[in-house]
């Protein structure tokens, strides 16, 4: 990136939280190969469907003897219908709440730093699903421009997001878009969503006080948890980001 491009990126990042401009900190751009290997192994560990094999044991055909359960729940038990209301499934909607980032304001946490189109982004390692080398991406018709398509990894279908187009659509000129060279796909939590990135920078602990946290709700960029001042990079609110991606939109980009 040229000096003018770097300056534009700094101004853009500052504008996210309406903060005065600060100088960019110099840091090593060497890819974190060890982190890549660790993240990949970590992701492979939970994926092995071999663990799913015990499922058949937990639900073998002999369980058909469970048919007597209807006797335990005869028609008169219809009064128990209110119980579903007390424990509705919508509770799973609580997982992708933007305020989940508050836990990271309680103490130090590890974060992965990566680059996209000259902009440095950070994601808490606890919210990292895994890191994969970019492979064949199959596009889908009728999807927004930021949705690159599906990438299959170990029989898992990952939904690929063009990070630059999602994060800074207003800055993505044809020239900048052509210069982007995505190398990795960073998956988010246990979701199928993955963010494309050009370069893995490094991983280091972050202190809550070193971050300018978002105050209230950022309607234009709900995915922005805050800005790491010293490194001039945006910290992603992964849960909020997953919610937006599941909804198919959520902010200014198209």
From TrEMBL:
InterPro entries: CheW-like_dom_sf (IPR036061), CheW-lke_dom (IPR002545), UCP020479_CheW (IPR014506). Residues 47-68 have a biased composition (Low complexity). It holds the Pfam family CheW. It comes from the Bacteria. Residues 108-247 form the CheW-like domain. GO terms for biological process: chemotaxis; signal transduction. PROSITE patterns: CHEW. Coiled coil: none annotated. Residues 28-101 are annotated as: Disordered. This is Chemotaxis protein CheW.
């Amino acid at each position: 990136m040229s000096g003018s491009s770097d300056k534009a990126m700094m101004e853009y990042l500052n504008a996210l939280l309406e903060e005065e401009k600060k100088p960019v900190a110099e840091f090593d751009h060497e890819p974190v190969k060890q982190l890549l290997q660790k993240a990949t192994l970590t992701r492979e560990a939970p994926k092995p469907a071999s663990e799913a094999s015990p499922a058949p044991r937990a639900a073998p055909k002999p369980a058909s003897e469970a048919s007597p359960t209807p006797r335990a729940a005869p028609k008169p038990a219809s009064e128990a219908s209110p119980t579903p209301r007390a424990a509705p499934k919508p509770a799973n909607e609580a997982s992708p709440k933007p305020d989940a980032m508050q836990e990271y304001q309680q103490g130090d946490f590890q974060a992965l730093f990566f680059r996209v189109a000259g902009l440095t982004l950070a994601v808490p390692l606890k919210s990292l699903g895994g890191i994969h080398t970019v492979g064949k991406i199959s596009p889908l018709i009728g999807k927004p421009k930021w949705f690159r398509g599906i990438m299959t990894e170990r029989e898992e279908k990952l939904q690929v997001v063009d990070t630059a187009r999602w994060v800074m659509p207003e800055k993505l000129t044809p020239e900048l878009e052509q210069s982007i060279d995505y190398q990795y796909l960073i998956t988010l939590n246990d979701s199928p969503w993955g963010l494309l990135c050009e370069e893995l920078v490094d991983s280091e602990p972050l202190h809550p006080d070193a971050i300018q946290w978002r105050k209230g709700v950022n309607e234009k960029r709900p995915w922005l948890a805050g800005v790491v001042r010293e490194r001039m990079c945006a910290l992603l609110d992964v849960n909020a980001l997953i919610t937006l991606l599941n909804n198919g939109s959520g902010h200014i980009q198209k």
